[in-house]
Specification:
Gamma-glutamylcyclotransferase; 7 strands; 110 residues; 45% strand; 3 helices; AIG2-like_dom; GGCT-like_sf; 3-stranded antiparallel beta sheet
């Protein structure tokens, strides 16, 4: 299992069920050094799943005072690939360390 940090629509149960076929388990965590902006979603499938036209997107600030709260979910390697399919081309997946000291993946702006 690997960790996947969600600060947006992947926290919605409906999105999880449609993307992974299950409700994810995880715990709250904090990402430091990033801020959130919004990006307009045009992919019809993502719009249908999330029911949201604008999604949050992370941007590196480099300031450790900047924090983004979210959920750190445990997922399989296969589910990470399913999350990659869900996220639109504005995002890229990188690995980082969270305030808890755990390592995991986040989606940031390209």
């Amino acid at each position: 299992m690997v960790h996947l940090f969600s600060y947006g629509t992947l926290q919605k149960e409906q999105v999880q069920l449609e993307t992974f076929g299950r409700i994810l388990e995880g715990e709250k965590d904090i990402l430091t050094g990033y801020t959130m902006k919004m990006v307009e979603i045009t992919d019809p499938e993502v719009l249908r799943k999330s029911n949201q036209k604008y999604h949050p997107i992370l941007e590196l600030s480099g300031d450790i005072g900047d924090e983004v709260e979210g959920m750190l979910f445990e997922v399989t390697e296969e589910e990470i690939l399913q999350a990659d399919e869900y996220e639109v081309d504005d995002y890229k997946r990188i690995e980082t360390v969270f305030k808890s000291g755990k390592k995991g993946f986040i989606y940031v702006g390209k």
